[in-house]
Request: fold
Amino acid sequence: MLFPTLSFGLFFLVVFTIVWAANGSNEWRKILLLVASWVFYGAWDWRFVALLIGSALLNWGAAELIWYQRDSPAGRRRAIMIAGIAGNLLILGFFKYYGFFVEQLGDLLRGFGYARDLPLMQVVLPVGISFFTFQGMSYLADVHAERLAPARLLDVTLLMSFFPHLVAGPIVRGSDLLPQFEESPRLTRDMAAIGLVLIVWGLFKKAVVASELSTGLVDPVFFDPAAHSRIDLLAAAYGYAVQIYCDFSAYSDMAIGIAALLGYRFPLNFNQPYRAASLQDFWRRWHISLSSWLRDYLYIGALGGSRKGFARQCLNLMVTMLLGGTWHGAKWTFVIWGGLHGGVLAIERIWDRIRPRGLPRLPRLLGILITFHVVLVGWIFFRAESFDAAIAFLRGIGRAGPASMVLTPLACLLILFGMVIHFTPADLGQRLALWLRLFPAWALGLLVGVTILIVDVMRFEGVAPFIYYQF
Amino acid sequence: MPQETPSPIDLPEPERDESGLGWAFGVILIASLFLLFANAASLRDWIDDQPPSPAQARAAELADQWVGITEAFGIGLPRKTMHAQWKRAEQARFPGQKTEGAEGSLAQ
Reply:
């Protein structure tokens, strides 16, 4: 069930009505939200609902054990946390990486002359598994560090299953959402106004900008780079940068807006990432819930951050970004993407240290241009089917070729639009909501209806799944 | 959620101290009714895409009739006009530009 479809729209109308009707009892409200979340997830495959429940039980049980042992030696509590995290990683590893590792092992054994028939299986990847397992792991780490008290089974299950963030984030941490589950929420005009703004804005970015660029430009060019001109390749690279931003940030916007209409506050996930003047700045603006998760639980929590010297800090950055790349999937192109980001982040740190004192800093505009193009090269690896395909794409940019065939004036306009929105005031949506909250319901209802109608006539026939569903 | 965790739903001015539930219901209801009239073709297409069953067949029949009514009153006209404009924008090419289809037909 995709957000920008009528199926989801009707589902949400029912959920919105029932959940607010049950607002007198917070328990019933949460139970209804949980059932709605399972219906939402079950629309992909009912079997995975059992996995979701199993994962919630694992994390709830491990957190209870950690808390129960809080007067015991620290080593025992740590062992329970590690066992819980290992359980999450096993689930993630089996569904996401089993095929990849067996394939790599087979290649390795063949290389050494020990060809074997390994137990290959076609494992179906449950949608959103990377998101809910990461959420479970951070919950355990927070309970272990006593940043969070263990929550009841209903709350933990709802935390992991709550449908707005379930399949593509943001990764909402227990410390952000569990306290909100403790009492019935209240829907203010402000929340409703900004929720509607975010939903309609997300709908436009996904259904019009991302879908149009994907079907008309990016997909055909990445499918066969050799058949396209240099201009098409360049346009597809820029187009993909805009597409992935409009696709993923649209999902986050809609998730945050839907949660707001249900009375819950989700964290910011994107903050105009292409106006970043360094890669470090980029990661404070792109997929913030993942980058802050990696920073807090992996880079600082597990690896020690900068506490063990400068060389170790650079190594930690590299390891964090390589694992961040692998989080996206079992493909070497994601590893290279992570390695590129980790390497440039380390180079930025090193340059900060060795930069002669008298040397002026780069002008901000130049920093933005350089950062954006580093990110752009990374996106080529991220999007390409294989390492060879990415190299062929980059080589194609360097050679002269036939005239452009797929780049259209509309695609140019959408790419330009996708870049320009990064340089508008960051709080434009909030300012719009402040204005809209003064409207009478009938006027805003008409405005929302007209806007959705305009988006619907501009959308490509059918809606492609969000890019981040595969992760 | 701790207030130090930023969220786009935090507005930069003090909150109006009034419930938004009835207001939000009103907005959603009006928007839904508007789309039911002005975008009836989307509803029909969605019903047509559902798995076949007696209920689906009946719903498809009703949706066809509904589209007929909205078209008879000209309510569906803005949708059709805007869609045609958008299709023209999609098909626009730079002066002298060949399309992939044209290239394919030359090769044949």
